[in-house]
Design brief:
With 452 residues, the protein is mainly β. 0% of the residues lie in helices and 22% in strands.
């Protein structure tokens, strides 16, 4: 074998030097070092021996060790060429707490125009520039780190609880839902919701109709984990959000007009979040007055009994939405014992009154959006004169006043923050006094989303 010993080989022309011919094998013997003092292409990565502890700009063809005792931002090359690659390694095993950020520096990362993070302890990530369409893409698999471009919703407002990877904001009164980061589709950018309006007030006098439940609207839960939504949430999409302030309105319950004998219960107030408005429950109608527009709403109020005619309960799902936000109130009877109708609930119509008993309120519906099942939006029970009173529907509906007694009996209020309707007033046979219907229960707004 011939040996040629020289200190320097200079290209003859064109500043290009070729070693060997196609098919030749160039061997670097054991113990020899190939040192890169300039720019080497096609030879793989050369590692920077100094561990990085602060932000820096990376160079293609290099590997970097990162001390993750604190967060470090690695700014990617500004004008990369197709095929450029680099590698980043967490050497101290703290990236899950102190993430390494890959600043895109004008290029896409995995096809997205957002920075990426490395959040795997002891993880290493090798990325290659693939061109302007997809930008930097991962070139490592198995147990390596990933270029995580997911961003999640971040927000404040209401009472905040956590269930696994999901946050739940519960609003029991008017406030603001303030979104500081709207997230993206790889993380989260939509929220599930439950919006319940205030329940209607029960009617006064001596056989008042029960108040209707507040309107009930819910999404299906597809955006924020596997929890059981109510039947009214089936196939209802979650709402997109962006960085903005969303005013939250939580409806109050409707009142009884007592001591006015002729007044119907008043409608509950609406609850509002973003594009979703749930309508307040209709008030129950009095034995002295025919049902009026005040008896219509999310769920309709029950009709008061009236000698000589049967009165019709208020219409629910008014104004109409799909799926329906509530049901109709029960009808009032005309025989002697004045059985009034129960208020409609989110899950069922109010029961009609009869000659011997008042109608119970319609049942509400259950949802686990807050982490455990809660039933809301039950209708208020109808009142009577001298007969058994109407029970409230499940989900916060108020009970009508005591029935077979000698004294007037006020209806009970709907449960707060359930949207339950108030119970209608009752009195004993032969009693000349009137009493008040129950106030409707206030509403609630619940917002749930994935935050990590």
């Amino acid at each position: 074998m011939s040996i040629v010993k020289v200190n320097k080989i200079t290209p003859r022309t064109c500043n290009s030097l070729q070693l060997g011919e196609s098919g030749d094998t160039l061997t670097i013997p054991a113990g020899a070092t190939l040192q890169n003092c300039g720019t080497a292409q096609g030879f793989g990565l050369s590692f920077c021996s100094t561990v990085k502890t602060s932000p820096f700009t990376a160079t293609g063809g290099k590997g970097y060790f990162i001390n993750t005792g604190s967060t470090v931002t690695v700014t990617l090359p500004a004008s990369p060429n197709v095929g450029d690659e680099l590698m980043v390694i967490d050497t101290t095993g703290q990236a899950a707490t102190n993430n390494i950020t890959l600043g895109r520096n004008g290029s896409k990362i995995k096809g997205a125009c957002i920075d990426a993070t490395i959040d795997v302890n002891r993880g290493g990530l090798r990325i290659v520039y693939s061109g302007s369409s997809q930008g930097w893409v991962s070139a490592t698999t198995a147990n390596d780190a990933t270029a995580n471009t997911a961003q999640f919703i971040s927000a404040t407002g209401g009472t905040i609880t956590t269930s696994g990877n999901f946050k739940i904001h519960t609003f029991n009164a008017d406030a603001n839902f303030v979104v500081s980061n709207g997230g993206n589709s790889e993380g989260s950018n939509t929220v599930d919701y439950l919006v319940v309006a205030g329940g209607g007030g029960g009617a006064n006098a001596f056989a008042g109709g029960g108040g209707g439940a507040g309107g009930y609207r819910e999404s299906s839960g597809g955006a924020s984990g596997c929890y059981s939504a109510s039947p009214l949430g089936a196939c209802v999409s979650a709402l997109p959000v962006s960085a903005a302030t969303y005013p939250i309105s939580v409806g109050g319950g409707g009142a009884s007009p007592y001591p006015s004998n002729s007044g119907n219960g008043t409608v509950g107030d609406n609850s509002i979040f973003s594009t979703i408005t749930s309508t307040g429950g209709g008030g129950g109608s009095s034995v002295y007055t025919a049902p009026a527009p005040t008896n219509y709403g999310g769920s309709g109020g029950g009709a008061g009994a009236s000698p000589g005619n049967t009165r019709t309960g208020g219409t629910g799902n008014t104004p109409p939405v799909s799926p329906p936000q509530g049901n109709n109130g029960g009808n009032g009877a005309n025989p002697a014992n004045y059985g009034s109708g129960g208020g409609g609930g989110a899950g069922a119509v109010g029961t009609n009154g009869s000659g011997t008993t008042a109608g119970p309120g319609g049942n509400g519906v259950a949802s686990s959006i807050t982490g455990s099942p809660v039933t809301r939006a039950g209708g208020g029970g109808g009142g009577t004169e001298g007969a058994p009173n109407g029970t409230g529907g499940s989900g916060g509906g108020g009970i009508a006043g005591p029935g077979p007694s000698t004294a007037p009996g006020p209806g009970s209020a709907g449960t707060v923050n359930t949207g339950g309707g108030g119970g209608g007033a009752s009195r004993g046979t032969g009693s000349s006094g009137d009493s008040a219907g129950g106030t409707g229960g206030s509403g609630v707004v619940v917002i749930r989303y994935k935050f990590q």
